[in-house]
Amino acid sequence: MGAVPKQAGGSTRSVPPVVWVLGYAAVWGLVALLPLDGTDLDQFFWPSARTALAGHPLLVYQAAGQLPYPNANGPLSLLPLALAGMAVNALHWMGSIYLRRLVALPLFSAFVLLMAREAVIAVDKLRDRRLTGRRRLLAYVAFAAAPPVWHSVAGYGHIEQPIEIWLALLAARWASERRPVAGGAMLGLAALARSSAAVLAIPIALSRLRRGGGALVLLATAAVTAVVGLAPFYLADPADVTHSLLTYRGNLEVGAGSIWNLAQGTTWEPIAQHWDFAFVLALVAVINVWLTLRPGGISGGRLYAGMALSAAAFALLAKTVWPYYFLEVYVFSAVWALGRTRASAPALLLPLVGASALDMLAEVGSAPHQTAGLVRLEAIGMFALLGAAMAWLVVVSSREVRVVPPELPGSGGTEG
Q: What is the DSSP letter of 54?
């Protein structure tokens, strides 16, 4: 994160980046002390990390074993969490939820900042000029301190999401710079952080079809990276890895927040239970092929619109929708909004307010002990609002004429 320059006519002194980083980590240390019991960090991630710390790094999926709801994300985020666990063990803090978080959340705040930095770089490249001064600081705040960030990482404990989004943004940038192998490797690592990153492969790969090729190389590299990363865990514990990352999902019931909730008790319910992700992939493919066929293809700002729409499609048609699903939607749509040529600070309001509102709406349905009528009403509202927002973004991004910035590594400023 770059230093904030002195503003004309102002008295603000330049602040070294390390001060911002340490101050941001300190804020996360305070957040760690909030009474947020039972997050996924505590229920799924820490048990896996403790297995690794006990001397069984390849058996991390045994912690949840064959439970109906296991640790369903790749192993990448467990590496920094295990490092945090070493410090927690040395301090004899493992028995306290709050003290464990006091170490883990400031550590993972570094990945939130990396995510924010890469998002700001993407905005710079789309605008063909570097944001400076207060505008640059505002952009960092937008990506590092927006409500969806706090809700996902602190409220739900999904420490893997900033890692996934950071790597996906890297994949998109390197793919646009004609580096399909590097971009594919980052995309594979993103999938190793969070499984749903697989939907982002479609817009990123399609972005290369009309701009020098490399789509197949990118996809092959991503697949090899993911397979190589998972292979040691699968060979050591095939049953638990298969259940945690593949088969468990088909056994879960249709839940809240999804239009599929209306299928409960009908002949459509088994389809929703076992094939929801097929509908997600079909919608992602249709949207991104449509964008690819527009003049200029799926490139420039349209690529980030495609990534936002792909993440939104997952939230629209998944059989259960959790509030933290909207973090990816927010970050990618905010990059698109701020990267538009005439965009200014108010351009951020639409993705910020929209994602935050949908986030809160999903919280209503996911809260325990809700009546069936309220859950169904929430599902209809979610589908209508998210669907309308997606339709608007498809139309607006399709009509954009200037979508292809200069394809030169470092154009538009690539330094944070």
A: T
